[in-house]
Specification:
single chain; alpha+beta; Substrate Binding Domain Of Dnak, Chain:A, Domain 2; SH3 type barrels; 2 domains; five-stranded antiparallel sheet; two-stranded antiparallel ribbon; 7 strands; 60% helix; rod-shaped
Length: 374
């Protein structure tokens, strides 16, 4: 450390010393308090991270609930085909994003929160009588560095006071010629004592400054560790919050875009036409043999080999094959797996449901867009 050059007082001049606050006796308190503040700031940071983790968890739960409710509504609704799959992909996106935000919550609590907690525990040590060991060490270090200089300063203040009192007495005695000589002698001695005390204080000052700066440097190094650690934790938090750098998060939106761009109005219209429009199979009426002719083919109530859909007693239904798995949500709904065959007994209603019968004889409703004619 380079110290300023020492300048002794000039004759007939008292040097005025303008010390900054830090160098004054006892004014190291703010530096010492910073250690306690650092421990409290660790608690604040942990609370901050914990609150954000709760938000991430709540958002993840809300996304999951929203996705589940709307997936059921879309699946039971009248939408069909590739556009339905694109719509359902929005629900899939929500489910995957929910998982990513759950990951964020876990990372904040398991990594960042625990990291700060452990660092605080390793860096601050509680004493039996209260307070932290690091605070006490800094306090004692500053006191030890200030003690010699503070003693010299106290002597200086006493000499200064004596000198000023002598000057005052000299001024009062100036009108009294008989006492003037003795007062002048007292003033001169007080001044010499004052200048000597000031000179001793100035000689002590470089060592005092060196000791004070040494303790202050130690406090700075401790605070540098805390500030560097805080910066490191905040970068970790940023990495955990920034989902744009997460490959799985990017894939969520790649999958969503693919599902939406794969939707085809032409394909859906064609499917609807084949299943509910002109493309449907129709047993057109043809000449039927008389019921009395037992040898005629296709005898009975068939219409061109099929059942008259308007003859309720003769309705046997149309055979269909399941395109997808379906698990009945209500007691009046059927459950089946993709590839299973069943019998459609009634045409699709306005909500997109059909009445059917499984091969085991169970009757119930099922989504019309889950099957195709055989």
């Amino acid at each position: 450390m380079t110290l300023p050059p020492h300048t002794p007082p000039k004759s007939n001049e008292i040097r005025q010393v303008n010390w900054t606050l830090f160098w004054q006796v006892g004014n190291y308190k703010r530096t010492v308090k910073r250690i306690d503040d650092g421990h409290r700031l660790c608690n604040d940071l942990m609370n901050c991270i914990q609150e954000r983790a709760k938000i991430e968890k709540a958002y993840a739960q809300q996304l999951t609930e929203w996705s589940k409710r709307w997936r059921q509504l879309v699946e039971k609704g009248p939408q069909y085909g590739t556009v339905e799959r694109a719509w359902l992909a929005v629900m899939t996106e929500a489910e995957k994003v929910s998982e990513r935000h759950q990951d964020v919550k876990n990372n904040l609590i398991n990594d960042d929160f625990e990291k700060v907690k452990n660092w605080q525990k390793d860096s601050y040590h509680k004493q039996m009588m209260g307070g932290f060991k690091e605070t006490k060490e800094a306090e004692e270090g500053f006191k030890k560095a200030q003690k010699p200089w503070a003693k010299k300063l106290k002597e200086l203040e006493a000499a200064k006071k004596s000198y000023h009192m002598a000057c005052k007495e000299e001024k009062l005695a100036s009108t009294r010629e008989a006492n003037n000589l003795s007062c002048l002698c007292v003033t001169t001695k007080a001044r010499e004592k004052y200048e000597k005390a000031l000179d001793e204080l100035n000689k002590c000052t470089p060592h005092y400054m060196e000791n004070m700066e040494q303790v202050f440097t130690q406090c700075q190094q401790f605070e540098e560790k805390r500030l560097s650690f805080l910066r490191e934790v905040l970068l970790d938090v940023k990495c955990h919050l920034n989902l744009t750098d997460n490959e799985r998060y990017v894939m969520v939106y790649n999958d969503l875009e693919h599902a939406i761009t794969s939707a085809s109005a032409q394909e859906d219209l064609k499917w609807f036409s084949n299943n509910h429009g002109p493309g449907m199979h129709m047993n057109w009426p043809q000449f039927e043999w008389s019921d009395e002719d037992q040898t005629a083919p296709n005898s009975g109530n068939d219409t061109n080999g099929g059942t008259n859909p308007f003859d309720e007693d003769a309705v046997k239904g149309v055979r269909v094959r399941a395109l997808y798995d379906y698990d009945g949500q209500e007691q009046d709904e059927l459950s089946f797996r993709a590839g299973d065959e069943l019998t459609k007994l009634e045409e699709e209603d306005e909500q997109g449901w059909c009445k059917g019968r499984l091969d085991n004889g169970q009757l119930g409703l099922y989504p019309a867009n889950y099957v195709e004619p055989i």
